[in-house]
Amino acid sequence: MTQVAHPESLAGGLPAGTIRGDETVVLACRPSRWFVLLSPIRWIAGLVILAVLITLVCAAMQQLNVLPDWTVGLTWLVAIAVSMMLVGWSVLDRRCRVYVLTTKRLLTSSGVIRRTIYETSLVNLRQTMIDVGVLERCTRTGSVLFATAGTARYDTAWWMLSDPAAVQQQVQSMLSRATRSQPT
């Protein structure tokens, strides 16, 4: 968990002017470094399975002298190249994700090509939940999900944080502070 004084200065962070003058940044963080490997893991596993199947078919066809010997090597070369591109994209995706908690709002900024910035007032935040999958448990990371009033789903999520419980606690602290300071 990284605390930053001004998330607008982060490369790939929030656009200038997103943080208003009447609020202070409490927390600014990115996904854990594990995000780079865990994010594309399903695609890479699928590629490996596909490469194994293609290798079996190619081996059978080579026995019949239909395909040259280099086709198996080409299959794995393509699988490795696509896997490296997926990991590269994941690096860019992590770099472009910024999660910000201010004294008044919760912001999620993401997207490599198409930027999306989600924001909600802390007084509208109704529920937070920590979600930890099997791979996240293995890497001691987790995600924090946020729901606002009037929705039947979680509106945004801060994916694969290094310490999701500490982040949730900090959000809950700011949430109680924001609701106490709100006029009734």
Describe the 3D structure:
This protein has five helices and seven strands, in the order βαααββββαββα. The protein has helices spanning 35-38, 41-63, 71-96, 134-139, 164-181; strands spanning 25-29, 98-102, 105-110, 116-121, 125-131, 142-148, 156-161. Strand 3 and strand 4 (116-121) form a beta hairpin.
Keywords:
disordered N terminus, 5 helices, 42% helix, alpha+beta, 2 domains, four-stranded antiparallel β-sheet, three-stranded antiparallel β-sheet, 184 residues, 23% strand, PH-domain like, elongated
Give the secondary structure arrangement, pairings included.
Blueprint: E1 25-29, H1 35-38, H2 41-63, H3 71-96, E2 98-102, E3 105-110, E4 116-121, E5 125-131, H4 134-139, E6 142-148, E7 156-161, H5 164-181
Antiparallel strand pairs: 1-2, 2-3, 3-4, 5-6, 6-7
Helix pairs in contact: 2-3
